Automatic annotation (TrEMBL):
Keywords from the UniProt entry: Signal
A Pfam family reported for this protein in Swiss-Prot or TrEMBL: OMP_b-brl
Outer membrane protein beta-barrel domain location: 7-199
Coiled-coil features, chain-numbered ranges: none
UniProt organism field: Shewanella salipaludis
UniProt keyword Signal present: yes
Protein name: Porin family protein
InterPro entries in the cross-refs: Beta-barrel_OMP, OMP/PagP_B-barrel
Signal sequence extent: 1-20
């Protein structure tokens, strides 16, 4: 269902007329996974865990702004990678790999389709609310002595966001915004800056 909706949004974007108000937009900032600590309770008491659940995030996409302040866009999004270091002497190799797969947060990369609305605009400033679907995948590896295993995850999940923009000229806008991605394993928050070019 989610993947069908994502495909429909992308096809709508491609089929818009050539005279439409197109724009290219780039975003860069940070990402933070919001993971519950309940998975850690399954580890041995003596375990030492170091989880890095944040990274750099960026995106680049193509969009269209309607005359009534609605925006539709598709972009490639990279939320970065999370890493986990686990020390637990009582775990056998199979249990170690399972534990790493369980406690490592999901960030991921993929294609995001987004629908936004510019609900306020004054003196060059404007505010936007948006939502959409993120088709993502991620892979990581866990190593125990000479045993190395690669793990993969993927999914299609919703997200929402808020952004404040300033109109630099008729073609250029700069902005700052926050988004939350409701991934299946954990939510991810992003905060960053953006630059868009209309044509």
């Amino acid at each position: 269902m989610k993947q069908t909706a994502l495909t429909a949004l992308l096809l709508t974007l491609v089929s818009l007329p050539s005279q439409a108000h197109w724009f290219i937009k780039a975003d860069a900032g940070g990402s933070w996974a919001r993971q519950s600590s309940e998975h850690l309770s399954a580890l041995p008491v003596s375990s030492k865990v170091d989880i890095d659940d944040s990274d750099l995030a960026w995106s680049l996409g193509l969009g269209y702004e309607f005359k009534d302040n609605w925006l539709l866009s598709a972009r490639y999004l990279d939320l970065g990678e999370a890493t986990t270091r686990l020390e637990a002497e009582v775990l056998d190799p199979q249990s170690y790999h399972q534990a790493v797969a369980l406690i490592t947060p999901t960030l991921g990369s993929g294609i995001a389709a987004e629908l936004g609305y510019r609900f306020w605009e004054e003196a060059g400033f404007s505010a936007l609310a948006s939502g959409g679907l993120f088709r993502w995948d991620t892979d990581y590896s866990s190593r125990y002595l000479d045993d190395n295993i690669r793990h993969e995850r993927d999914g299609t999940d919703p997200f929402v966001g808020l952004e404040l923009e300033y109109k630099l000229s008729e073609q250029w806008r700069a902005g700052v915004g926050i988004k939350r991605y409701f991934l299946e394993r954990n939510s991810v928050d992003t905060f960053g800056v953006s630059l868009s070019l209309s044509f």
